[in-house]
Amino acid sequence: MTTRITHLIGGRPWEGTSERAGDVHNPATGARTGRVDLASADLVGQAVATAKAAWTGWAGTSLARRAQVLFAFRELLNARKHEIAALITAEHGKVLDDALGEVTRGLEVAEFACGIPHLLKGGFSENVSTRVDVYSIRQPVGVVAVISPFNFPAMVPLWFVPIAIACGNAVILKPSEKDPSAAVAMARLWTEAGLPDGVMNVVHGDKEAVDALLTHPDVRAVSFVGSTPIARYVYETGTAHGKRVQALGGAKNHMLVLPDADLDLTADAAVNAGFGSAGERCMAISALVAVDTIADALVEKIKDRMRKLRTGDGTRGCDMGPLVTGQHRDKVAGYVEAGLAEGASLVVDGRDGDFDGDEDGFWLGPTLFDDVTPGMSIYRDEIFGPVLSVVRVKSYDEGLALINANPYGNGTAIFTNDGGAARRFQNEVEVGMVGINVPIPVPVSHYSFGGWKNSLFGDTHAHGTEGVHFFTRGKVVTSRWLDPSHGGLNLGFPQND
Ligand code: NAD
């Protein structure tokens, strides 16, 4: 039995008939569980028109009222987080605990956005020139699009949507067509929270829908998260059509381990950050850069821990779930072949796993390679699966140079007990998010999330005050109340006095 998953436009499920639809699977069984409608450019146009019509009223709604809606949404999301987590596990495959974790991290952003009256306070300077005051205000952008990836079907939309709405915009969310149900469930909560119909819309689709959003004249801003080639395309196309765009891309995250690190804590962290969510996290550690003197001992400890991991159906209390689709599982398994062919040492082979789930599930167990070198495809490419590569280096300097030479710059971590080395690393590494003895340094919601280099196109990171900045336009008012002393003709450029 398959469920139809359709668009939510103007607060209601779409009642039309779609010419195209995509398959949604339960990755733990391999069964097709849903068919998701894929929007045409025409339908995207209708959604944008609905959002635009709702926008004017919402932009004029008081900050007090907007904050009330945000608080109500926060309460509803908190109350329903287990339902949302179950939808994520059923379509993405990650284990329930982890799914709940992503909803909780998203919830943090809704909590941040509840403070919108404070966040939108402008600056005021009295008497910048005699009896002249200057103040700044920030106003909503208009209709904004959020285009999200499969790997965080709740958290990534939540990085943007609550802030966009709190700032007074209307939103079209285009979630991943691989696991679209969490987005729809969360959009319904906005309606329950009292958000006027049309301010929050969900349109499902693929390239056709994305292209329609990127070129539509009434879409003013685009927040995108996904792989690097598509992020670059979205950035270039959206900006060429006059939109502000923040496009977060792929990653290859390194964890540098110095000889003085606590190797037990480091091994725990490497396993958690390498294999959590089956490595399908943009902040997953995929390259473990170990200084030679401790590499053997560290690899042994990681191998021991990997033996204890249970891979299986995310509803059964396992540590790690399946990959998102059969095609993706095959692609990742192909990298295991490639690593062997390129001469890396395969320490743990995830293809041999014993899986606690249906035999048709998209399984691949945790895999560990040692002696990986920068020229190998398993090092160069973002694999986005449970494959951890150990690269051995002679020193801190060699490790740092390796990380800085990588074209990605999303997250990185250093494991050490040397405060001086850690401080040098935070200063010298060319990466947007840095962990010191923290393997996945995803910033809390009141800071901003974003990488450098090929991991982000645009200059504004997600959520935190940068999110508020992205979803608003600045205006500066210079005011002088009439005063006879300022009369008279003067064609020169005003000078302050
Ligand atoms: P993806 O790039 O395939 O898809 C992302 C979105 O783009 C989806 O909504 C999809 O429908 C759309 N899309 C896909 N192909 C398109 C095309 N040709 N033209 C226009 N739109 C298209 O990414 P994914 O596989 O869903 O997600 C995994 C990727 O996302 C990984 O590379 C991961 O690193 C990255 N990611 C990055 C971050 C970050 O913060 N930097 C966070 C999460 C995921």
TrEMBL record:
Pfam families: Aldedh. Signal peptide: none annotated. Keywords: NAD, Oxidoreductase. Its EC number is 1.2.1.27. CDD domains: ALDH_F6_MMSDH. InterPro entries: Ald_DH_CS_CYS (IPR016160), Aldehyde_DH_dom (IPR015590), MeMal-semiAld_DH (IPR010061). The keyword Oxidoreductase applies. It is an enzyme of class 1 (oxidoreductase). The keyword Oxidoreductase applies. It comes from the Bacteria. One of its GO terms (molecular function) is oxidoreductase activity. Residues 1-25 are annotated as: Disordered. PROSITE patterns: ALDEHYDE_DEHYDR_CYS (PS00070). Residues 18-477 form the Aldehyde dehydrogenase domain. PANTHER family: MALONATE-SEMIALDEHYDE DEHYDROGENASE (PTHR43866). This is methylmalonate-semialdehyde dehydrogenase (CoA acylating). It comes from Nonomuraea guangzhouensis.
